[in-house]
Amino acid sequence: MVTVKASQTKNPLQALQSYGQSVWLDYIRRNLITSGELQQLIDDGVRGVTSNPSIFEKAIAGSTDYDTTLTTIEQSQDRDVISLYETFAIADIQASADHLKPIYKQTNKRDGYISLEVSPYLANDTEQTISEARRLWQEVDRPNLMIKVPATPAGIPAIQQLISEGININVTLLFAQDVYEQVVNAYITGLESLAAKGGDIRSIASVASFFVSRIDTAVDNQITDRLKTSTDAGQRNLLKGLLGKVAIANAKLAYKSYQDIYQSSRWQKLSSQGAQTQRLLWASTGTKNPQYSDVLYVEELIGSDTVNTIPPATLAAFRDRGKPKSSLTEGLDDARSTLLNLQQAGISLQQTTDRLLTEGVQLFINAFDQLLSAVEKKRTAILGGKLDRLTYKLPDALNTAVQDSLDDWQQNGKIRRLWAQDATLWTGVDENKWLGWLGITEDQLAHIDRLKQLAQEVKDLEFTHVLLLGMGGSSLCPEVMKLTFGKTKGFPELLVLDSTDPAQIKAIESQIDLTRTLFIVSSKSGSTLEPNIFKQYFFDRVQQILGAESAGNRFIAITDPGSKMQHIAEGDDFHRIFFGVPGIGGRYSALSNFGMVPAAAIGVDVAKFLDTAEEMVHSCASSVAAKENPGVVLGNILGVLAKGGRDKVTLITSPGIADLGAWLEQLLAESTGKDGKGLIPIDQEPLGNPDVYGSDRVFAYIRLDFAPDSTQDAAVAALEQAGQPVVRIAIADPYQIGQEFFRWEIATAVAGSIIGINAFNQPDVEASKIVTRQLTAEYEKTGKLPPESPIFTADGIQLFTDPKNAAILTKTVGKSALLVDYLHAHLNRLQAGDYLALLAYIESNDEHQVQLQAIREQIRDAKQVATCLGFGPRFLHSTGQAYKGGPNSGVFLQITCDDATDISVPQQKYTFGVVKAAQARGDFQVLAERDRRALRIHLGKDVRAGLATLKTAIKQIL
Ligand SMILES: O=C(CO)[C@@H](O)[C@H](O)[C@H](O)[C@H](O)COP(=O)(O)O
Ligand SMILES: O=C[C@H](O)COP(=O)(O)O
């Protein structure tokens, strides 16, 4: 530590070297490197460079330096925002490192460094800081790199560990003396362990970055506040004398500590093995108060064995008019008095530096947020129509609430918590086990060959049909794929069976040639009743024609590993078994084999489909700011509006993707409808004028831009004008439908968190399955279902309900009531904010759809309530969860019939008709147990006549 007189021939900047101080540049951007300016600065005396999130924010967000590279990357392969940022940052860091390499060599590894900071989001996480630092160190792959780690309580142990692994560290955000001591200890201990392992401690360099000007800004503000109220002359003088003094005093004392510590015998041991001291680096050295000299934090902080990292303007000013002198060791007593006087004036330096550390972390987080958000905006602009667009218009008050909630998601790092699979974002039970879908596109793309192989086989074997047998999460995505992609030349047509209604099974069977059909039995759990009995039935039918040996060839299974279905498939020699991912629940499984195997079998280019979906995965990544994040934005809208009473998510889909609504219904209802809360999806409700809608709605219009429906366009525009909240999603290409699967999965998870439920279980679906099982078991034993008595019978129509609902209805209608009276009484229970659900356990065919849709429309228009239509048992695996577990705002009209013809289930006493009847009764029993307003109308054998009677009766009432 020798003080050397400045040489007169050098400019002030170069002269600093003679005082033992190295000047680093606190700035980086692409043009600085490519224009040759950095090299010039190096030639002029700059011996290192530092970067931080704010510097990169200014460089990347505030310039066009990176735009060409960004466009080139995005046009060849979409990347997520964090990987784009890193591509830019790492290239700049590597290029700067290469420019600085000669200095690194000349100074024998003392100077010539460039610093890159770990993500500020990790400032309070030791383990993640360590792994992130290791990863960056490897990626940059330059010996003259320093990884910046903050001096937070979590950062300090990381620093020690990283030093012990031979990684150069710049300790950043250092403000306080006592923290400095911990940092030095971490450095020395780290070096000792490296030495003990036989590592090369001579190659390690580290700096401890003391932030200077921020201390003056913070302290001066407190002094100024006190001066406003203090009248005591002595006190005022004391306070005034401290203005602009504390930061430098603090730095001088830190420097004194440095000199003492590195004299210690503990250090001498390392020093004798060639270890370098961890130099103090003065950071935050641009002057903030215009009343102070613009080179204050350079001139006052000069001393041997130190670094000053200086922003460009300060650097230019000092080069021009700086007066170097050996200042750090001057006036140490004054420095001590300054800090004592500060204490005497009642200003705590400790509290100030603690606050500065917290604020410092937050400032870097804010800068990083802004940086990533700017890159995301550029990325989405480049992607253009390749990314489904989301726009929304909400009434002002709702919009404010949504923006506040998005701020909460941003500021509290909730998107990162979601991606980090943090169960406490929901109810903290086991949600972390059900987030496997977050990484599914990448996983699937890695195993794409199996899907391609299947597609080729299906084509070669010239199947005419693929019949998918499954329920809910195992059937709804294939249905969307079928409608969206239709029939591809050379590939079979897809049919989906998800009903136990005998007429429906017959209708499907009549469309296929059993010998030229590939059957896909799809069940995640493998234990769901319906796919198991569908398999029994069709396997038996194929066996009858092709013989026991060959039947298995026509079947493939999609199921989770180890399930009952896997064993059945193996036992029956199925052609193939595709496995699901156990960490993905059924309704989140669209992009896994459950959606992609049937898609491949009908000739969808699954690689392209998944690649396209990945664009949305990137857009929803943890690093994308809440307000730019299309899944998080949608989730916040849905969650916040639901909490404000707008829980009826009304789905409007272009005709070409109409089935997407059924998939969304399951996702939204089953995920959120529980604990008396949740979203009630309203799908396929005929569109009406704005005046038929209540204030419990939010509309989501998913529009195929290449095949829009003008009636829908006009109706949605009118709703928007009438002040209803409307979300619009524009899809430019059918292959982009996969983007919606992912966006809505994220949105549902986010909405679930806001609503405050576990978005990944379905407790109330299980409840009706249990009752159904009891009823079918009883049938197996006795050959009949338990008897039940109607509350009304006439003209072949019967009404049933539970005792509580019966008491309420009969009290209202009196004794000799007619069917219309009962229906009237039941529908009169609908209040504003309620919804009506028709639960139809009849064949889902065009004629029935038309009749039920008309009934639905009549009720909606007359009562201004939302209406739903579900065919049983299909909806049991979907909206059934919300009907039973969600808000008690549903009024249910269950519709059952006697099946004109029935079908036996091989090896069982019960028939498909019996199963369907048991399912309807199980469903009703649980609705009643949950205190729901429910009535069942049994149409008898003639469903057409029964529906007509029902329609007329309802018309009469309304
Ligand atoms: O590398 C470092 C410190 O290690 C520097 O880039 C450091 O982050 C900067 O000097 C400060 O962030 C600048 O702070 P300020 O001038 O905005 O207060
Ligand atoms: O949504 C899921 C359905 O309940 C079917 O379940 P599964 O795929 O386990 O058979």
UniProtKB/TrEMBL annotation:
Keywords annotated in UniProt: Cytoplasm, Gluconeogenesis, Glycolysis, Isomerase, Pentose shunt, Schiff base, Transferase
Reported function: Transaldolase is important for the balance of metabolites in the pentose-phosphate pathway.
GO molecular function: carbohydrate derivative binding; glucose-6-phosphate isomerase activity; transaldolase activity
Protein name as catalogued: Transaldolase
Pathway: Carbohydrate degradation; glycolysis; D-glyceraldehyde 3-phosphate and glycerone phosphate from D-glucose: step 2/4; Carbohydrate degradation; pentose phosphate pathway; D-glyceraldehyde 3-phosphate and beta-D-fructose 6-phosphate from D-ribose 5-phosphate and D-xylulose 5-phosphate (non-oxidative stage): step 2/3
Pfam families: PGI, TAL_FSA
GO CC aspect terms: cytoplasm
Naturally occurring in which organism (per UniProt): Hassallia byssoidea VB512170
Single GO biological process annotation from the record: gluconeogenesis
Family from the record: Belongs to the GPI family. Belongs to the transaldolase family. Type 2 subfamily.
Entries under InterPro entries matching the protein: Aldolase_TIM, G6P_Isomerase, SIS_dom_sf, SIS_PGI_1, TAL/FSA, Transaldolase_2, Transaldolase_AS
